[in-house]
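User: Second chain of the day. Same drill as before.
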Amino acid sequence: MSVIRSSLITQLTTNLTASNVSVSSELPFISGGDVLYSKNMKTLYVDEEQISQDTFIETLDRSNFLTNVSTLNAYLQVDAKTQLSDINSIVSNVLNAKSVITNTIRSESDYTTEMALDRITYTFEFRFDKTI
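Assistant: Same format as last time:
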């Protein structure tokens, strides 16, 4: 497990302790044709870290300054018919978990929602830029 994913899961667990949602250390894999966050609603799953490189500063002598961009997605599915009373607090606490990752030049988090049948899926995206 990557250091960023591990730190993020620890912070998410702390942030969501008093909420109606739990945090899993498992990856959101497919089991029996369904993703785990669909089988285990009200459980937040954090996916593997995806790393890419980007140019931070281009120099004339081509000794560019690079960054590693780490992107992680987290997934939470809830019942749309009986919305959680603390969902706004849950979303805010998930988004704020990015603060645990230090030594970055940029930390961002956002989310999207998708409604299908009687379920709402929250997809959170965390992005961290670190210089190399």
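The CA atoms of residues 15 and 93 lie 6 Å apart.

User: Great, on to the next one.
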